[in-house]
Each structure stands twice: as structure tokens, then as C-alpha cells.
Amino acid sequence: MITLITVKNPFKTDREIKQISYIPGQTLLGYAAPETMGFEEEEFVVTHNGEIVEPEKYNQITPGPEDYIAVCPVISGGDDVGKDIARAVALIAVTIV
Fold first, then answer.
1. Does an H or E element contain 93, and which?
2. Which of helix, strand or coil describes residue 21?
3. What is the C-alpha to C-alpha distance for residues 86 and 45, in angstroms, rounded to an integer?
4. Is 81 helix (H, G, I), strand (E, B) or coil?
């Protein structure tokens, strides 16, 4: 089983934790996609076993059967500095999990 954690709001402690079936060969994006529908890649952060994964690697990483995946929205303004701050906040939120 894979543990999938979805943080709905990085500024609150509300989160959803699911145990989902391990599918051999399924990529990180395959597991995270249902939680990110309707979002652009820059609007969420995905972590794999506590490490932030860059969006270009979502289809390259294949989680193992006991791994943890967390999905957290990125709250940002209109510039790249806001995205960096939001990534840091998202990392802290996922780390607390």
C-alpha cells in the first residue's frame, strides 16, 4: 500500500490521508493525478518520501509499495518570488505530516 497525503490548505492542519493500492510501474504523477485534477503543474507540489519532486520528474519516478506521496497546493502571487515562498511553506506543511 502507498500512503497518499493530500494537504488541502498549507496554512491549516486539514489533510486527507489515504492508503491506496500499489501498482507496479505506476509513476508518481499517476498516483498524484486524481488529487491535482484542474490544477496546472506550478499550482501544486508533490513530495515523495519527504523530498520535493520537480515537476519534470513526476513521470520518471516510480514509487515503491510502502512509499509516501504528499500533494500540497502552492499559494502564490504573480511573481516567481511568491512561488519560492509558497514552495517553502508547502515543504513545511508536508514535513509536519
1. helix 80-96
2. coil
3. 9
4. helix
